[in-house]
Amino acid sequence: MVSMKLSKSDKKTEPNMAMPMEGGADFPYGLELRLNRSQLEKLGFDPEVGGEVMIHAKGVVTMYREEATRNGGGKPDCDANIQITDLGIGEGEGSRRAKAADDRLNKISGPTNRY
Fold this sequence. Notes:
23% helix
């Protein structure tokens, strides 16, 4: 996996690309998923604020665009839209629920040294 966190130079050169978040705009706009109650229920996911999740998704590229300018130099700018068609969400290793589940398993089968 690759961290999508904006570097300090990206924050200065592309301020409109940052998504406002508590504590500052650390990630580019468009990387936040919003799910309503029926979508959460369909996924069987009970979120915990601040909890880490693992996401597995399948999607379709719905748009790809390259744009070069006369004075742009270097590689042309590009962007793509991806429509997520299938989504799975699971607890991340650092979440409270994942640790509690691991603790229950440890009582039954012994420690896994996962953390």
